[in-house]
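Reply to dn_fold:

You asked what the input looked like. This is it:
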Amino acid sequence: MAQVDSIGNLITSGTVFESNPFNITHSFNNSADKQSNWSPDGRVLVFSSVQGDNQEIYAYFFNSDGSLDTSITEIPKRLFSSDGSWDNNPYFSPDGKYLIWDKRYDNSSPIGIVDTADSRDLYIGDISGSGNTLQVANRRAIITTIGADEYNPKWSPRISVRRIAYEYQGSATSTDHDVYVIDPFDTTINTTFYNPNNSGYPAWSPACDKIIFESDKSNGDFWKIVSLAYPTNSGQPADIAAEQDVHLRYPTWLPNGGLVAFIRFDPASNKGNIWITSISGGTPIKLLQSQPQFDNSDNLWPA
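and this is what came back:
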C-alpha cells in the first residue's frame, strides 16, 4: 500500500506505516493478493486472495487514522467461502450496503486452465454488521450467461445512478472484449456501452457523467486509456493516455479529483508500474519514482 497526497505525489515522511509502500499482506500467505478496493468510508479494504485452487475475498479493517484495526480477531477476515470457485474483483456499492464481485466457475480439469468450458458471472451480496460482525449474506447472481464472461464490475459512485459497468467476453477464450452497463436490481436493463475492437476494465467518473476504460482501437493493438460520455456514449472516445509499444491498462479514477491511475506495462521487460495522469490528458507521471521493486498490476486510489 502506497500513500500519496491529493495530487498523487508519493508521501515519504509522516506516513501511517513504518515503510512506504507498505506490504500489508506480506505476513498473510505466499500466494497472490490482488484486485483490492476500498469501502466508501475508507475503513475496509477488500481484495481477492489465491487459496490453493480457489480465490476468496478477504478484508482488512482500519481505524480513522489509517492504522490497522487490531481488534479484529481474524486479520485479514475471510468474508465468505468461494465454494470451490474463483471470486474476484470485489467492489462496494456507494452506500456500503452491497458488495459485488465476479465468480469464475472452472467447469473442466485441470483446475486453473482457462478454456471454453469456463465462465465468469456477476454476483451481489448484502452487507450487514461491521468489523468482527461484518457479513456478506444473501449472495446471489446478478447475471449468468452460459459460456460467456461478465467480470470487472464497478458500481456507479452516485447512488441515484444505480448502474454497474462491467467487461463482457463472449467466451473465456474469446479475443473480443466489450464494456456493458447493467442495473443490479433490474437486469432487463443491460446495455452495450462500447464494443469496437477490444475494450474493458471500466471505471466511473465521480459525477457518473463519463466512463473511462482500456481500449486497443486505432493504437496498433496496444492498449490505451480512453473516456466516453455516459449515458449518451455517442461519438468516439477521447484518449486520456496512449503510447506506442507499451500497454496502458487497468484505469482507476481518483474519487474526488481529476486524476486517473493506470498500469503502464512494457511487454519488452514484462514489467508494469503505476502511473497517473490528468483526466484532461498531459504527461503521465510514474507514481512510485524510487520504488522499482513495486511493479504492480492492481492499482487503486484510497478513499
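The chain has no helices and 20 strands.
Hope that clears it up.
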